[in-house]
Design brief:
single chain; about 500 residues; alpha+beta; Transferase(Phosphotransferase), domain 1; Arylsulfatase, C-terminal domain; 2 domains; seven-stranded antiparallel sheet; 19 strands; about 20% strand; globular
């Protein structure tokens, strides 16, 4: 701990977690560090698996810049991994956890300590022949592979088997990975550390110099891919996630008229959500005495999107809604959807087969005239007559790449309206007291808006452990029934008949 503090307190870089101080008592040492509210790339990886190539470039570039600073100060991190790469509110990478870091005291010094995390540990560390800066390059190679492929290169079910594969350099890069990206991974994962590129050479690689790197990423990337599309020469539709050879990584934001085919889980994460609710409801959270609901709070899991306004005109046209970022949408009775982004200019049309088309409010196909007119009517009505649920969200750079979720289906009961978004979020607005719950299976969390319009977010697993108030427990129990109904409905249903 003394070594970690001494090393970390002397570092100051945009992509290194800031050290603010420390203190101790008779039992513990407390270190004050920069708050990274968006957690780490590990949580992002668990939610998203494989990322798009521009996203990977964005994160890797920042990791390399932070590592470049460390190496220039003769610091070897020795534990670079997704769990130690944190994200702040601006979706910037911050390298943290210097518990295994060390300083090179003289040129050519080789460290002999066996340390690191199995999936990211370099072969020279395992062989105990001495190691230096090159171990961080190896770890970045493992990180790059994991971000693009969706799993670490040497991962197996057993530690001994993983170490054997590392020592024998046994890994396979899937054929759908861009050859330029595959080439850089192979350079960083060379068994001989002397042949790996230095941290200064990495950003000069073709992977970074020829590929698109966004200047910012939207917070929606925590759960869904950004709004990238093919290069201008492209003509065929493109799926947005690297999951196979047909899903080559997109290179730029979509142009007006671009068509993109969306891929999402068949049930939009409803099965996952039902499993989470079943566990928390079985724990009977309201019966804990005393209730320690505050222990279950987790502001980092606040939903990215929720429905802040809605109007039901399904007897003629459909359901209109506003998302928390002030974008507007309509789920029409014919199962098509039209979304107007918060800039009040960009339009996104989603056909029944989930194909997206992008247009401008100034220029769109004539066949969409009636639907655009209806969307504008819904927008005007909600702006003039309805109160917004939740606080206003301040626009930020990178939001132009946001991929908005759309309303997948909805239904009303005597008690509430149930709204299911394409990113898996299920929102239930109760009529009697205007309370709301927003359930996000990717965050494994629930946000509860009480009758006073107070906004609190809780991890479902922590509610299992610490309990919650009776009002929230009743909402969670009701939500379990509603999610079961959503699962039993056909995927094409727009408005589902209410339960008897």
């Amino acid at each position: 701990m003394v070594s970690e503090i001494a090393l970390h307190r002397g570092l100051a870089h945009r992509h290194v977690v800031a050290f603010h101080g420390f203190f101790e008592d008779a039992h513990f040492v407390f270190i004050l560090l920069e708050l990274c509210r968006r957690r780490s790339l590990l949580e992002l990886h668990k939610r998203r698996k494989a990322l798009t190539e521009p996203e990977a470039r964005y994160y890797l570039r920042q990791i390399i810049l932070g590592c470049q600073y460390l190496h220039s100060n003769r610091v070897i991190h020795r534990d670079l991994k997704l769990g130690n790469l944190f994200l702040n509110d601006d979706m910037e990478v911050k390298i943290g956890d210097f518990g295994l870091a060390t300083k090179v005291e003289y040129d050519g010094e080789r460290k002999k300590t066996l340390c690191g995390t199995p999936n990211y540990i370099a072969p020279e560390v395992l062989d105990k022949k001495g190691h230096s800066f090159e171990v961080d390059i190896w770890s970045i190679g493992c990180i790059m592979y994991t971000l693009l492929v969706g799993k670490p290169p040497f991962e197996t079910a057993s530690l001994s088997q993983t170490y054997r594969r590392i020592k024998n350099n046994e890994y396979t890069i899937p054929s759908h990975i861009n050859p330029v990206a595959a080439n850089l991974i192979q350079k960083m994962l060379r068994p001989d550390p002397a042949t790996r590129p230095t941290v200064d050479e990495l950003l000069e690689d073709e992977f970074f110099t020829t590929g698109y790197i966004p200047s910012r990423l939207p917070t929606s990337c925590l759960t869904v891919p950004p709004r990238f599309s093919l290069a201008p020469s492209g003509r065929k539709p493109l799926a947005v996630v690297n999951k196979g050879p047909e899903n080559a990584a997109p290179e730029k934001a979509p142009e007006k008229g671009t068509e993109v085919v969306l891929q999402e889980p068949v049930d939009s994460y409803l099965t996952n959500l039902l499993q989470q609710l079943t566990l928390v409801n079985a724990s009977m959270p309201s019966e804990r005495v005393p209730v320690r609901q505050e222990e279950a709070e987790d502001p980092a899991c606040i939903p990215i999107f929720w429905v802040s306004k809605w109007v039901d005109y399904s007897d003629k046209y459909g359901l209109g809604y506003q998302l928390c970022d002030n974008s507007m949408g309509v789920l029409f009775n014919d199962s098509t959807r039209l979304i107007m982004y918060s800039d009040r200019d960009s339009l996104q049309y989603i056909a029944r087969d989930s194909a997206e088309s992008y247009f401008s409010i100034q220029s769109y196909p004539v066949e969409y005239t009636k639907k655009v007119t209806l969307l504008e009517y819904f927008c005007q009505y909600m702006s003039e007559h309805l109160l917004k649920a939740g606080a206003n969200i301040t626009p930020r750079e990178g939001d132009e790449l946001t991929r908005l979720p759309y309303l997948r289906t909805w239904f009303r009961t005597r008690s509430a309206i149930v709204l299911h978004l394409s990113n898996g979020t299920v929102q239930i607005n109760f009529f009697r007291d205007h309370t709301k719950v927003i359930l996000c299976p990717l965050m494994a969390a629930v946000t509860y808006i009480n009758e006073k319009r107070e906004f609190r977010t809780y991890k479902l697993a922590l509610i299992e452990e610490f309990g919650c108030c009776r009002a929230l427990a009743r909402c969670l129990n009701y939500a379990g029934t509603m999610v079961e109904k959503l699962l039993s409905a056909k995927s094409g249903d727009v408005g589902i008949k209410p339960p008897a």
